[in-house]
Protein: MFS transporter
Organism: Paenibacillus puldeungensis
Amino acid sequence: MRSSLTARPDVNLLRLFTFTVYGTTVLVSSYFPLFYAQLGFSSSQIGLLYALGPMISLFSNLLWSLLSDRYRTVKRILILLYLGQIALTFILSESTNFSIIMAVITLFYFFYYPVMPLTDTIAIATAQKKQVNFISIRLFGSFGFAFFAIVIGYVLTRVGASNTMWVSIAIASISLCFALFIKDQPTSVAKLNLSGIWGILRQKELLWFLGCVFCLAIGVRMNDAFLSITLHELGAGENIIGWAMLASALSEIPFFIILSIYGDKLKELPLLILASLIFAARFLLMGLTHSAYGVLAIQLMHGLTFGIFYVTAIRMLTRLIPDEFRATGMAMYTIMWSSLSGLLSGTFGGIVFEQFGRENFYLVAAGSALLASAGFASRYLHRKQPGPQG
């Protein structure tokens, strides 16, 4: 076995890659909507464009993850995904027509959405092989999100929202460079056994878990899609939006660290119940505030909500799904957390925001988080056969 000192370069390269991956996430989630608004698109049109990504990711996540498991590679798939992103972002930078942008962004999302579950997949595999904590790698995603949130905000304040796509090309190119040098972590099974996946999907605990994740994700994706629009309505500029992203990213770091040390001593379902309840409170406050700086303060709750939820959900998922189906399992989780929920929240959320206002929009988001909390609680209270974890 190689020493930890010799193995460290592989882990550090993956940390740097994870750091840059989240730069594109900042742009897509927070600054692409402003780019659309700058082109004169309505809230319902922006909601539709946001919903296209989750719709495409329903099959793109599974397709690329199945290919990853089938051909035992994550690295080569990531390189292909970034090449596709860069080419399509260039086309977006030259487009202003809604129909053309809708067509191109559909293709862009085909290459964008699978990056996150595959990045988590290679990080989990590397952490296990090198005997380091997965969170010690994932933390660099939070650092990257925080760094790019504030830097991109100030850059776009200087160069204008019309140059959003060129900033995206620059960040994706940096990620591609790191992807070329990270070490691949193939799965233990060369050929994917689809009957094995069907057996996994028949697990009642997994289905219940994914259903609750879907309910919670509806509110989370509604907030993600319209956070920058909300701040813009409250008079915030691109730099304030960057500070909001920074606040949320930094707030999750201490919770990642605490849960990586003590999380295994706590039962999973109570933590998921707690995170869902705090999500509901967060969305209620978002609907009540009338200040951009109030939104900044509320964003600090992100650590309690997403920080607790993400670490616990990944821990539960790795317990429920065998290692040989890791990429596909992460894709299934992402479909619920981003794809199906994003499809519904983008189309339905855009209509609610435009027709009924921000207050009612966030009431709906809070209701979905409360429903998820009730689902996790019912599973915890009525589970007949207690497992090794709560």
Remarks:
- The chain has one domain: 4-382.
- The mean pLDDT is 84.
- The radius of gyration is 20 Å.
